[in-house]
Structure formats: C-alpha cells, structure tokens
User: Which sequence fits this backbone?
C-alpha cells in the first residue's frame, strides 16, 4: 500500500516525527501465525504485526468478529480506505487464529498442495481466518483458483478474507445467495465525522463539527482524501476558505490519483475515464454520444470491476458516477493532456441531453462549453421555471461564468440574465441587462424568438421599468397579449396587472386577476403563487376581512415552505402580509418570526422597485405596531413613504399611512393616560381617595396645599378615565392599585 494510504488510516505523529518509523507491537501469544505454529509449513505465509496509532473501526471489527457462519469476507475499496488496517485491527480483536498469505503463495504450480499447506497451519479447533491482502496485485486466475480450492476444503468455523482494490474473480453472486458472504465496501469503510475528526486532529487540523461534516461530505468519507485535504489546507492561511475551494484537482490529491489509481488502469480505460469526466453521470448511451463510439456500456462494466471509485447509481448498474474528487482529478488530467477536446466533449454532451429532454444537464454542458448562443437559447426557453421555482441560484452560477460583454452579446442570454437578476432582487442590473438585450435584439434583426423576447422585455418594464402604475399595468397587459394563453409568463403578467389595479384602487378587479394568477401558477411557478396570495391578502386587510387574509397568508407560507422559497428575496411581500395578519390575530410568535424574515429578505432586495418596497414596508410597519414596536414601525413607515412618493398613480398608500399614523397617535395618547402613567405623588393621593376625608384634610396630613391635592386628584381621574372620586376608586381597585 502507498505511504499516503497507510498514513491516512493512522493516528498521525507530530510532523517532527513524521519521517520516523511507526512503533509496532506483536499480537498476543494466543493468536498463532502460520510461521509460529509450523515453521516448516508453506513459505508463502507470513505474520503481520499490529501497528499502534490506528483510527479504530470498532463497529466494523465487531461485525467481522461476530461473523461465524459465512465462509468468505471480501473487502473491496479503492486505495486509501484502510483495508489492510481493518484486517490488522480485526485480527487483534478476534479470538480466532489468523493465517496471512503472501502473494508468493500463489506462485507454485501445484495450488492444491499450497492450499493443503495453508490449511495445515491452522490448529485443531478449526476456527481460523485465512487472509489474502491486496489480492489485486496477484494474477486474477491464480487468486480465483487458490481461493476456490480453499473454500471447497474449509472446515466448519473457518473463513477466508480477501481485500482488493478490484472485484475479486469469485462467484460472489452464488455465495451471496447462500448467505456465505460478508461484504465490506466503500460505504462501510467511509469515515464518519467523529472518525474523521480524530484523523484530522492528528494531522494537525482542528476543525469545528460543521466544518468536519462538510469536509466528510466533500471527500465522501475517504480516509486518504481527508488526510491529503488536511495537508493541502494546512499550507493555507485561510483554512475555512481553502476547505470550501478544495477540489480533486488540488495537487496533493491529483498526484495521488495519478500514482495510485490511473497508473493501475489499462490505457484504454484510462483514456475513457479521462474523456468522460465531463459527465456527472455516465451511461452507455451518453458516453457513446460524447466519445462518438459504441460499446461504452461494456467499458463501464470493465471500469466498475477495475475501480470502486466508479459508483453505480441504479440497481441494474447501467448509470454510474465517479467519486467527486476523482472526477475533479480526471477533469484536470483532461485539461492537461487534451485541452482542445474539452469544448467538443461538452458540446456533444449538451446535444445528447437536449435531445433527451434533460434541460438542466444540457444547460450545464452548454455553459461549460462556453457557448453563448446555445446557453442563451436554452436558458431563455426555461427561465420562468428557474426563477419561479426556487432554482435561481443555479442560474446565477451559470451566468457568473460569462463576462458582462458576453452576456450582452446575445439577446436571449441577456434577457434571461435580466429576469434572473430581477428574481435575485437586483433591479438595477435587471434594468441594465434589459436595455442591453433590447439593443442586441435590434442589432440581430433575425426575428428568432422575437415575439417571446418582446414579451420578456415588456415583463421587465412592467416590474421595474416604470414608476407610473398605469404604465406598469399596460406593459404587463402587452406582455400577456404577445404570448399564448398557456405560456408560462401569463401568471406573472396576471400578478403585475392585478397589482396595478390594486394600486389604482380597483380592488375587485385586482382580486379576480390575482386569484387567476394564483391558480395558474400553483403547479409551475410557486413564487408567483405566493406573491399573488400576498397581494390578495393585502386587499383583504384593507377591507378588514381578517379571516380571508389569514387563509391567504397561510396558503402563501405553505407554498413557500413546501417549495423551499424561504430565502427567496422576492418573497418578502408574502412574509410581510403574514406578519401583519398574524399580529392582528394575536399569533405573536409567528408574527415576530415572519416580521424578521420579511425584514431580512427586504434587506437583500436593496432599493427594489418602489411600489414593491412601499407595500412590503407598510405591511411590516403594521405588524410592528400590533406587536408594540412603535420605533420599528416609524422607521418602516418613513421608508415606505419615501418609496410611495416615487410610485406615481398609486392611491391606496394614503389610506394605509393614515391608519398607521392614527394608530400611533392613539398609542401616544394611551401612553399619557392609564394606570401605568400615574406618578408617585398621584399614587400617594390615590391611597386617600377611598376614605371620606376632604382634599383639605388630606392636604393637612401630607403637609401640602389643598390646591395641590385637588390638582393631583383630578390628574388621577383623567388617567383612570373616571368622572368622579368614586369611579376613580372603582377603576383603581379593578387595576389592582388599591388593596382589598
């Protein structure tokens, strides 16, 4: 086993001692090796000393030690998974005798006498384990013949254990059906976070639990990958940043893959693996298309046998994927050895996925091929689905690979980018890209998709292009007319038209359009559904129909939760409507949660389109008022007022502002009255009011003037809302200000 692979399964020594040999200890005397039991026996047997410092695999060892009925254990995994270390640890914790085979044992011509010699090394109890480690280093036919002889002659209680980087040439299916087989494979050997934490700490890397879990996910628990990652990031000043950027093309990992994996593959399999590394999932048909060849399914079968780093994704073993880090390394090898092929391979992959209706994969390959036109055509055709179904981050990632000039060079790509930035809350960039898209469309004059592009431009104009509400409604209606009834843009247009009607005071017409928009978008555009329901809830709140408002906002939040839209900035309006409704109904905890979410998402939107910002802040302000946060409400209303002044033609805002300020005035008046506002001097006077003493008598006892007592008594009446001394006493008693 390579030095790095051995090191990865050890508890590492300090770096100053790294070059020294690890300490060793022998097995307890009870565990007899073949050489100790019978020195004259077959020379191919050798004893293996256990090594201190292993990352213990306790559960696996217990499972193996308890397996007494099976006759064969196979441990199959790529290099660096700790196969040899597991065998050693198992031998140290099992009371059976272990007989270890050297590969020399497979050299003699008479394998039957070799098998007999091996079995003769075992004691009379019949409970022993014959171990062949690194079986992939021996000729496959020799391994098969010897192990079949051993398995046919094993006494009851005896077992053969084989570890290998490749599938052993044995009838595993038959043994599996007979329950005579124990299999330990990559998922069993992959390290859990607790084990990985030990390994990383001993490699000098102290990480918190979350970071360890993320690194285990990236390396898929591969022990040597964890160790090499520790070596790589240990050289960086920013450990967290280095871990987030870690890929299989890191030089530590790439060198290991070349030395330990690729070097062991035949040239034809190496070339196949390197060139198909452009694919995230590998199947016979797509590999045939990408490589312009035939028979890839059979090649994948050979690769699966040769390297467990190729993982089947289906029970039939027709679709595969590479270990993520190894795929990175293969990609680096492709760029190093055949960079001229990269674009062509991605272009063929894009064509195959597009022909088979897999838009996500086709787009990803078009982006990797850096094909502006193909990316633009594919993305524009699907942009509504991406931005309304919570998948806009994927689009943003694709767009980030192109420069601004490249984005603006092709109208469909520029317009798709505009809608993506709009969904992300970047209205300024959306406006810029819409202008660029219009100019690019004018330059091309090809007419390709021109009707759809005009509709898309009108949609951008409706959302962020005009401050005048009337123009917003007209642009949305124009966009609707340019597309057929079943077009995915229709629900968005209905939302914008409904909002425009609401802003201009036509609540009934708005409600009809918003209801239609919510129904049409329910299956295909959930974020639009949430927006339609939130806008309709705002209308219900205006009409004091709080039950309807609660029903609408509850529906909107269900859509957001079910479709994973809680961090979508454009959904701020839905959280704001929910916060206002729930605060009014006394659902304080839910209202506070929605208020926080709405404010956080609103912050991400920045200086978004004025009408949207005004509406959302007004709803959040009302929620704050009902939750007794007057200061927060004042701040939100001030911001909303600034934005409302920029929304020309909107008539509903004045009513909302009047209600909010009136409510705050009432709160201010209440704060100047009521039992809680009584001063200490007034409370002192209040104690005397239940008695029959006159103001003059009270003044004499307190040592103040009668006029002072009268003034303070009248202040008590006013603050308690009482018209007389007796009513003030009654109200004070009800408020608990007087003893019983």
Assistant:
């Amino acid at each position: 086993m390579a030095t790095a692979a051995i090191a990865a399964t050890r508890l590492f020594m300090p770096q100053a001692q790294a070059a020294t040999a690890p300490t060793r200890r022998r097995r307890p005397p009870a565990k007899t090796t073949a050489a100790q039991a019978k020195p004259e026996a077959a020379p191919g047997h050798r004893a293996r000393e256990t090594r201190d410092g292993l990352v213990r695999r306790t559960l696996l060892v217990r499972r193996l030690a308890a397996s007494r009925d099976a006759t064969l254990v196979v441990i199959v995994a790529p290099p660096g998974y700790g196969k040899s270390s597991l065998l050693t640890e198992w031998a140290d914790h099992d009371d059976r005798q272990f007989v270890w085979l050297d590969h020399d044992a497979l050299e003699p011509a008479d394998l039957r006498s070799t098998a007999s010699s091996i079995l003769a090394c075992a004691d009379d109890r019949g409970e022993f384990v014959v171990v062949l480690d690194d079986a992939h280093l021996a000729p496959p036919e020799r391994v098969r013949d010897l192990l079949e002889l051993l398995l046919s002659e094993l006494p009851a209680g005896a077992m053969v254990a084989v570890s290998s980087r490749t599938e052993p040439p044995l009838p595993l299916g038959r043994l599996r059906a007979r329950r005579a087989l124990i299999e330990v494979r990559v998922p069993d050997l992959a390290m859990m976070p607790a084990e990985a934490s030990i390994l990383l700490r001993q490699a000098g890397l102290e990480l918190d639990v979350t970071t360890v879990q993320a690194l285990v996910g990236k390396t898929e628990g591969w022990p040597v990958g964890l160790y090499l990652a520790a070596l790589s990031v240990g050289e960086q000043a920013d450990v967290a940043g280095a871990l987030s950027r870690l890929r299989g093309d890191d030089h530590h990992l790439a060198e290991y893959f070349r030395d330990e994996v690729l070097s062991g593959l035949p040239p034809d399999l190496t070339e196949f693996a390197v060139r198909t590394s452009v694919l995230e999932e590998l199947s016979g048909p797509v590999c045939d298309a990408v490589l312009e060849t035939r028979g890839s399914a059979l090649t994948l079968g050979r690769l699966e046998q040769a390297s467990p780093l190729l993982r089947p994704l289906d029970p039939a073993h027709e679709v595969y994927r590479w270990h993520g880090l190894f795929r990175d390394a293969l990609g680096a090898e492709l760029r190093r050895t055949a960079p001229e092929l990269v674009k062509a391979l991605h272009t063929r992959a894009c064509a195959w996925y597009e022909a088979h209706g897999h838009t996500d994969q086709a787009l990803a390959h078009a982006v990797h091929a850096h094909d502006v036109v193909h990316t633009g055509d594919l993305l524009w055709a699907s942009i509504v689905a991406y931005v309304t179904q919570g998948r806009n981050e994927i689009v943003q990632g694709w767009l980030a690979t192109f420069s601004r000039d490249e984005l603006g060079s092709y109208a469909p790509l520029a317009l798709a980018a505009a809608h993506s930035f709009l969904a992300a809350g970047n209205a300024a960039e959306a406006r810029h890209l819409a202008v660029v898209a219009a100019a690019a469309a004018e330059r091309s004059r090809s007419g390709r998709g021109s009707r759809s592009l005009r509709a898309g431009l009108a949609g951008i104009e409706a959302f962020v292009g005009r401050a005048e509400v009337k123009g917003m409604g007209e642009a949305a209606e124009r966009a609707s007319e340019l597309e057929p009834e079943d077009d995915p843009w229709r629900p968005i247009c209905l939302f914008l038209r409904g909002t425009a009607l609401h802003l201009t005071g036509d609540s009934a017409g708005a409600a009809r359009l918003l209801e239609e928009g919510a129904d049409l978008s329910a299956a295909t555009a959930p974020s639009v559904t949430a927006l339609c329901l939130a806008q309709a809830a705002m209308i219900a709140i205006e009409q004091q129909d709080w039950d309807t408002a609660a029903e609408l906002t509850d529906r909107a939040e269900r859509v957001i939760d079910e479709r994973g839209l809680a961090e979508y900035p454009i959904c701020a309006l839905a959280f704001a409507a929910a916060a206002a409704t729930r605060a009014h109904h006394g659902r304080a905890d839910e209202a506070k949660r929605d208020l926080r979410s709405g404010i956080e998402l609103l912050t991400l939107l920045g200086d978004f389109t004025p009408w949207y910002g005004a509406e959302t802040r007004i709803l959040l302000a009302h929620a704050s008022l009902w939750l007794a946060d007057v200061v927060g409400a004042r701040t939100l209303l001030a911001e909303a007022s600034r934005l409302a002044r920029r929304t020309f033609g909107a008539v509903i805002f004045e009513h909302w502002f009047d209600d909010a300020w009136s409510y705050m005035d009432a709160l201010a008046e209440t704060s100047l009255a009521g039992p809680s506002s009584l001063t200490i001097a007034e409370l002192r006077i209040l104690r005397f009011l239940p008695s029959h003493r006159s103001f003059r008598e009270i003044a004499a006892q307190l040592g103040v003037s009668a006029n002072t007592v009268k003034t303070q008594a009248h202040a008590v009446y006013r603050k308690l809302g009482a018209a007389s001394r007796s009513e003030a006493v009654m109200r004070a008693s009800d408020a608990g200000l007087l003893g019983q």
Q: What stands out?
A: Confidence is low (pLDDT under 50) at residues 1-51.
